[in-house]
């Protein structure tokens, strides 16, 4: 494969497809640059003084890590001055961040989970950044939370960076899924995966089994059948993997297939799920569908969910199509 940088890839995409505007290209480049900075901060670990808690809580009552706050700041600073955005929403911010009046405003809305997998930071396991791009509704100049409440099917782009043994950026602009590996010496993302496809069949699942006693009946049935292995109704053995960083679990599924599930459970009846619709479920669902996989809430297509509020949680079932369709059918049946 020729050495194709993210910049070159985007310019060539822009020439080929009208849907990639100059501003959307700029937006993706700016997010990628912020991910490089986050990758460097994450990589310094204890030497950078970035580990541990920030002694604050986010809007969802979760304790923020220093790196959650730092990553959020890096993404905000990188994105607010370019003129491509109308507003920014983040898992770590109560309300959307308005673009300061001294800068021009653009037509896009950017949403992100600045650092996914916070519980893994201090134990040196992969973490990542997830982002999603929507269009600001026509005529809106001062976007509020309500302007972000669009179904995932309206996303124009989505992606994630995973900070693992190597830093990888995965991207879709609605025409397939591409991955780029960070060349640390040169400081640029290089195209290393074209048109990624998730195998339709799999024998691997990802779930936090410690919640089993709180699951609904269709989930008990589905996982029970997988655990029964070759002697059970599925007639084959299944393997389990759970990194507990959604980015890393989804990246594995994109690489070799699998199903990722964070179902609704009855532990806390007030919470319809663990993962956030706007910052985690929607961008990942867009990527997974673009790679030939499926993504549902267990009952409906994730990308069709009409959001009711910015920080809403949702059950997530995504990955290899045949398994997602089966477990969804169990819920509907
Ligand atoms: P975040 O660190 O952004 O709050 O997200 C963590 C999420 C997700 O990455 C992962 O799949 C899940 O929480 C892990 O949940 P458990 O603690 O139940 O393993
Ligand atoms: Mn997250
Ligand atoms: Mn997070």
Structure description:
With 333 residues, this protein is α+β, with helices and mostly antiparallel strands. It folds into 2 domains: 6-193, 2-Layer Sandwich (Fructose-1,6-Bisphosphatase, Chain A, domain 1); 204-332, D-Maltodextrin-Binding Protein, domain 2 (3-Layer(aba) Sandwich). It contains 8 helices and 17 strands. The strands form 4 sheets. It has an 8-stranded mixed β-sheet, sandwiched between helices. It has a 5-stranded mixed β-sheet with strand order 12-11-13-17-15, sandwiched between helices. A two-stranded antiparallel sheet has the order 1-2. Strand 1 and strand 2 form a beta hairpin. Helix 2 packs antiparallel against helix 3 (66-80) and helix 5 (217-228) packs across helix 8 (321-332). The N and C termini lie far apart (47 Å). The mean pLDDT is 96. Residues 113, 116, 246, 280 line the site of one manganese (II) ion.
Quick recap:
With 333 residues, the protein is α+β, with helices and mostly antiparallel strands. The chain has helices at residues 6-16, 22-44, 66-80, 145-148, 217-228, 246-256, 277-290, 321-332, and strands spanning 53-57, 63-65, 85-90, 97-98, 108-116, 127-135, 157-163, 167-172, 177-183, 188-193, 204-206, 239-240, 259-262, 275-276, 294-296, 313-314, 316-319.
């Amino acid at each position: 494969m020729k050495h194709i940088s993210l910049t070159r890839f985007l310019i060539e995409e822009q020439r080929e497809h009208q849907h990639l505007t100059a501003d959307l290209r700029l937006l993706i480049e700016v997010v990628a640059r912020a991910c490089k900075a986050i990758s460097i901060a994450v990589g310094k670990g204890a030497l950078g003084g970035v580990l541990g808690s920030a002694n604050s809580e986010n809007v969802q009552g979760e304790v923020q890590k220093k790196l959650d706050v730092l990553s959020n700041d890096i993404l905000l600073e990188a994105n607010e001055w370019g003129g491509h955005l109308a507003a920014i929403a983040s898992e770590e911010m109560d309300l959307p961040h308005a673009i300061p009046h001294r800068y021009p405003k653009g037509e896009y809305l950017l949403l992100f989970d600045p650092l996914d997998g916070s519980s893994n930071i201090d134990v040196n396991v992969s973490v990542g950044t997830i982002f999603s791009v929507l269009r600001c509704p026509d005529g809106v100049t001062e976007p509020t939370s309500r302007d972000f409440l669009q179904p995932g099917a309206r996303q124009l782009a989505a992606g994630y960076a995973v900070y693992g043994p190597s830093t990888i950026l995965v991207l879709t602009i609605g025409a397939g899924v591409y991955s780029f590996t960070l060349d640390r010496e040169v400081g640029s993302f290089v195209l290393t995966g074209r048109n990624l496809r998730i195998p339709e069949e799999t024998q691997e699942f990802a779930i936090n089994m410690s919640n089993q006693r709180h699951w609904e009946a269709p989930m008990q049935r589905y996982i029970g059948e997988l655990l029964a292995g070759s002697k059970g109704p599925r007639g084959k053995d299944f393997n389990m993997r759970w990194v507990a960083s959604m980015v890393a679990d989804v990246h594995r599924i994109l690489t070799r297939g699998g199903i990722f599930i964070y179902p609704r459970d009855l532990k806390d009846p007030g919470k319809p799920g663990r993962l956030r619709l706007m910052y985690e479920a929607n961008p990942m669902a867009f990527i997974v569908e673009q790679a030939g996989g499926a993504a549902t809430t267990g009952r409906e297509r994730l990308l069709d969910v009409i959001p009711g509020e910015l920080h809403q949680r949702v059950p997530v079932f995504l990955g290899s199509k045949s398994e997602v369709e089966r477990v969804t059918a169990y819920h509907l049946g």
